[in-house]
Design goal:
The complex is a heterodimer of chains A (122) and B (877).
Chain A (H helix, E strand, L loop, with lengths): L1 H11 L5 H12 L4 H11 L8 H13 L3 E3 L16 E3 L1 H30 L1
Antiparallel strand pairs in A: 1-2
Chain B lengths: L5 H9 L4 H21 L3 H22 L5 H24 L1 H30 L10 E8 L11 H10 L3 E15 L5 E8 L2 H5 L4 E4 L12 E5 H6 L11 E4 L2 E9 L10 E4 L15 E6 L5 H18 L1 H4 L2 E7 H6 L2 H33 L1 H9 L4 H34 L17 H28 L2 H6 L6 H40 L9 E6 L11 H13 L4 E7 L9 E7 L11 E8 L3 H4 L4 E4 L13 E5 H8 L8 E4 L7 E7 L15 E5 L8 E7 L6 H12 L6 E5 H44 L1 H9 L4 H38 L9 H27 L3 H7 L1
Parallel strand pairs in B: 3-8, 5-7, 14-19, 16-18
Antiparallel strand pairs in B: 1-9, 1-10, 2-3, 2-6, 2-9, 4-7, 5-8, 6-7, 11-20, 11-21, 12-20, 13-14, 13-17, 15-18, 16-19, 17-18
Classes of the chains: A mainly alpha (122), B alpha+beta (877).
Chain lengths: 122, 877
């Protein structure tokens, strides 16, 4: 419980929206360009989250300005390089933030699960 | 993005986004939008993507306005309130001006919002089905038969579903009419024979009992009733589930009540699709197939896969599947069909009205800005920055357009209520059109845009003037005011041109429709009533139908007030039509795609008499034309000309190819009757066969009464009960009602168009009046001097009227030229509903109307001008 409060307090300054979390998680695996991000997020959420083209770049803009994401200088596979597509890469800060966020979400999920069990028991 | 025109459009669309994001991510966003567009399943989805991209960009702009940044918020809010208070006060000082502007804007926004609400309901709003964007309709096409999308054959789609990885599930159905008896007398209902999977695909659920299962196909007869039928016709009778009713005379157990079929014609009853020989083929293409895609796939991928499967079926089964392939279309597009053309036309028309509105209000604002130049100069002299004054003036415009928008939304609400009943039923969503969030957003966006459009030019101009010059009030003839009035005159020309364009299009529609309705339909509708019966196969097998029909006709003919009675398989302008191929019996078999097709009607001997269809030569059918006699046929003039190149063809032989084995002898030729549609430019070929030689259970009775207004239906119903109490009569309509129904949609379209066009003309006249009046005020001194130098009052009046007429003439010419191009384009896309030829009279009338009304609008200020007191004018100078 204590950990949870501290983490909430830590996170208060940088509340992360679900879509930002999804973008970071998708970039954590490998560098991706816009279309690949949209498709990856759609696949991860079973088609429930469809990121609109404009919104994706507003999210990326926020993440870049907070130093969580940077632009990759070269594409992961040079033979696939396409001048119109730019690849995005998660930064070390980004990775740390993602980990913290994941732990926080995990802790919340545990809490909720505990509550559910309690109410089921009683 | 293979289409080279697309990127240009995208770049335009990108302008909705704030400059910073555009510079940083513009190219990437466009690439992503392009990728998503290529993967989109339909034109509708592509439209939605673009629409969403634009609104998102505008949203981002809004969010980036300094107004929203926390440190600016307080002072910006203060300034806004201050501006609003000032704007309100200044509008209240000139209530007539403010009211005129608000009302004009309300008209424009009301028209746009109501039409956009229809567009939204049909094109943008998803179907009321869970995950509707994954629903598709599957068709089969055969390039050798013209490549039209046709319904599907059972075994072909079964194979498609089995082999496809993209299709999650697939349901098929076919509509049928059924006689349903749950009480003493049977009732006619719309039924569907369906596979159990259909309910799952369309997200329908059991309200009571259960849905249809696979086992039902082979088990005892069962049926599902629709929720609306159960509630409306059976009073939500809980006892009905599990009981037995009679469908077409045969018992069936009701196993459940199912929620209504969404987005399509509502069926009353569902029965399992029987696996009889007629159904389980690859060649009977009569089933409607609706599928649900896997979540991870796209329509493009599914269509490509279906096409591959179609090709492999062609290769494996050349006997049955040669030339056949699958076509996968997203369900909404398939249901909406061509309606979008009419909607787009209307959007264009109301956009035209909005242009006029903006032009008018801009003109009013220009005049107003001229009047206020002193006030603005004083504010500038006291230290207000240009930016500050500009914002003040823009706030005033936006306040007026906001009030106009609010009133316009109320207008649109009333208009939608008004014309909902007149809209066609068969387009999903049209009748449920309402002012929802999207429509409200549209109305607000249009109001803001209108405010910005009509507010910016006058505000810019007002704040751009030299302060000293304005304070001196050098209002007379500076070069800037000459440019001013040139701009105003140009705007009036645009208004008149737009009004003339709209009037001409509406007038051409009206003329086409009245011409079509005035044309002799070739049959006589007055005093004729039609009604349908459909004897079920179980109690009335096909070969017994001629006797049954003869008995019914005898009983009906004996009724008081009945002059003539006949039976047919198809009434004129009826919804069902069968087309069959034909050729002269001695001609070689043509290729299927080159074959000529004719409408087919099977009728009893008195049919031509009952509908007064004229025989050009030969004889009508006789009682002797029985199944055992020589096969005979009566053809219409068009068919005689097409088949033989002449009309005296009695005795010739026609082969109804490939449906009949033996040719038929022509015993008569009828004049052309417009039985397909009153609006067709030419009458299609049609042939009639004697009912005794071609009986069908789909029967219409045609009864001509001696006196108009006689109720023949109840008599006929009673007579029919004496023959077979289990046979319901349905679809009782007068022939005049049938004709009115055929013309209903074109009539609605035309009256709406005319209303908008008249509004446009009214607004244009109002604009012209304003400009001429203003010019008269400005030329006060000049006119006074002319009068003082001896010009007659009539000469001054002429001078002013001619000034107005010059603008009107130019506008009319531009409007007519645009209309000529527009009607040509529309004629090709509206096929028959609009005939641009021979409309010179309409066009001339519209030109005269435009010029006469504009002359009248200029006359009022001209009269004022001629009464200028020369002495007073000279003293003012």
């Amino acid at each position: 419980m204590l950990i949870l409060s501290i983490m909430f307090a830590m996170n208060e300054t940088h509340p992360m929206r679900p879509i930002e979390f999804l973008v970071l998680a998708a970039l954590n695996e490998r560098d991706r360009h816009g279309y690949a991000l949209v498709k990856e997020i759609e696949a991860r959420t079973g088609g429930r989250t469809r990121v609109k083209p404009g919104n994706l770049y507003r999210v990326l803009d926020r993440l870049v300005s907070r130093g969580l994401v940077g632009r990759a200088d070269e594409s992961p596979a040079p033979e696939l390089a396409d001048a119109r597509r730019r690849y995005y890469r998660i930064t070390e800060t980004g990775r740390t933030t993602l980990r913290t966020e994941a732990q926080l979400l995990g802790a919340i999920a545990d809490e909720v699960r505990g509550l559910a069990h309690k109410s089921a028991d009683s | 993005m293979s289409d080279p025109r697309v990127p240009a459009l995208y770049r335009f669309v990108l302008l909705a986004w704030p400059q910073r994001l555009r510079e940083l991510y513009g190219a990437e966003m466009l690439t992503l939008l392009g990728d998503l567009q290529s993967a989109a399943s339909s034109p509708r989805h592509r439209l939605l993507l673009t629409f969403g991209f634009v609104t998102e960009g505008l949203g981002a702009r809004w969010a980036e306005l300094s107004f929203f940044s926390p440190h600016n918020r307080a002072s910006a809010m203060d300034r806004l309130l201050q501006d609003l208070r000032y704007a309100w006060a200044s509008s209240r000082r000139r209530p007539a001006f403010a009211a005129t502007v608000v009302l004009t804007i309300a008209l424009g926004i009301g028209a746009n919002t109501s039409i956009f609400a229809l567009f939204n309901a049909v094109m943008l709003r998803p179907l009321d089905i869970p995950d509707a964007d994954r629903l598709v309709q599957v068709f089969e096409t055969n390039a050798e038969r013209g490549g039209d999308a046709s319904n599907v054959a059972f075994l072909n789609v079964s194979d498609l579903l089995a082999r496809s990885a993209s299709l999650e599930s697939l349901g098929v159905f076919t509509p049928v009419d059924r006689n349903l008896a749950y009480g003493e007398y049977p009732e006619r209902v719309q039924a569907a024979l369906a596979t159990g999977t259909l309910f799952d695909v369309l997200g329908m659920h059991a309200v009571r009992g259960r849905l249809l299962a696979d086992a039902d196909t082979d088990g005892p007869a069962v049926a599902l009733l629709s929720e609306s039928y159960w509630r409306n016709r059976l009073g939500s009778d809980e006892a009905v589930v599990g009981t037995e009713l009679r469908i077409n005379g045969e018992p069936a157990v009701v196993v459940g009540i199912v929620s209504d079929m969404p987005a399509m014609e509502p069926f009353d009853l569902f029965q399992p699709l029987p696996r009889i020989d007629y159904v389980t083929t690859r060649t009977n293409h009569f089933l409607t197939a609706i599928g649900r895609l896997e979540p991870s796939t796209t329509l493009v991928a599914a269509a490509a896969e279906a096409s591959d499967i179609g090709l492999s079926l062609q290769a494996a089964l050349p006997g049955t599947n040669a030339g056949w392939n699958f076509l996968v279309v997203d369900l909404q597009s398939s249901l909406v069909g061509d309606t979008w053309i009419a909607l787009a036309l209307f959007l264009g028309v109301v956009a035209g009205v909005l242009v006029i509105v903006c032009v008018n209000v801009t003109n009013l604002m220009l005049v107003r800005a001229g009047e206020r130049s002193r006030e603005i100069a004083v504010r500038g002299a006291l230290g207000a920055s240009r930016r500050r004054i500009l914002r003040q003036l823009m706030t005033e415009s936006l306040l007026l357009s906001g009030l106009g928008g609010a009133l316009g939304i109320a207008f649109a609400y009333a208009a939608l209520e008004g014309f909902r009943g007149a809209l066609p039923v068969d387009v999903p969503g049209l009748r449920t059109a309402s002012i929802d969030v999207t429509v409200l957003g549209f109305a607000v966006a249009v109001s803001v845009l209108t405010g910005v459009l009509f507010g910016s030019a006058p505000a810019w101009r007002a704040t751009g003037r030299d302060v000293i010059d304005a304070l001196r009030d050098g209002a007379s003839t500076t070069s800037s005011s000459r440019a001013h009035s040139r701009a105003r005159r140009a705007l009036v020309v645009i208004e008149v041109a737009t009004a003339v364009l709209l009037l001409t299009v509406a007038g051409t529609f009206l003329q086409t429709i009245s011409r079509s309705l005035a044309r002799d339909p070739g049959f006589e509708a007055s005093r004729v009533t039609t009604m349908r019966i459909e004897p079920p196969q179980a109690t009335h097998p096909r070969e017994s139908l001629p006797q049954l029909v003869a008995a019914i006709l005898d009983a009906t003919r004996a009724l008081p007030g009945v002059e003539e009675v006949a039976a047919t398989t198809r009434i004129p302008l009826g919804r069902s039509a069968t087309m069959r191929g034909y050729k002269p019996a001695d001609a070689p078999d043509p290729e299927m795609r080159d074959a000529d097709f004719a409408l087919w009607t099977s009728a009893t001997p008195d049919y031509f008499e009952a509908l007064t269809i004229r025989m050009l030569s030969g004889r009508p059918f006789a009682a002797t034309d029985t199944a055992a006699a020589t096969p005979v046929v009566i053809i219409n003039e068009t068919m005689a000309l097409r088949a033989f190149g002449r009309t005296d063809v009695v005795g010739e032989q026609v082969h109804i190819w490939t449906d009949e084995a033996a040719p038929r002898t022509v015993i008569g030729v009828t004049s052309n009757a417009r039985t397909a549609s009153l609006f067709d430019a030419s009458v299609p070929p049609e042939y009639y066969t004697p009912f005794a030689q071609s009986p069908m259970s789909r029967i219409s009775l045609v009864i001509r009464a001696i006196e108009p207004g006689t109720d023949v239906a109840s008599g006929a119903r009673a007579a029919l009960r004496r023959i077979d109490a289990q046979l319901p009569i349905f679809d009782v309509r007068t022939m005049e009602g049938v004709i009115a129904a055929d013309a209903a949609t074109p009539r609605t379209v035309t009256s709406l168009l005319l209303t908008f066009a008249a509004t446009a003309l009214g607004l244009a006249l109002f604009g012209l009046y304003g400009v001429v009046s203003y010019a008269v005020t400005r030329r006060h001194q000049e006119l006074g001097i002319r009068l003082a130098l001896g010009a007659s009052q009539a000469a001054v009046r002429r001078l002013v009227v001619f000034q107005g007429l010059r603008m009107a003439l130019l506008g009319t010419v531009v409007g007519l030229a645009t209309a000529a191009a527009a009607t040509q384009t529309l004629a090709t896309s509206l096929n028959g509903l609009l005939d641009p030829s021979g409309n010179l009279v309409t066009w001339g009338a519209i030109a005269i109307l435009a010029l006469a009304t504009t002359a009248a609008a200029s006359y009022l200020p001209a009269r004022r001008a001629s009464r200028v007191d020369p002495l007073a004018a000279l003293r003012d100078a």
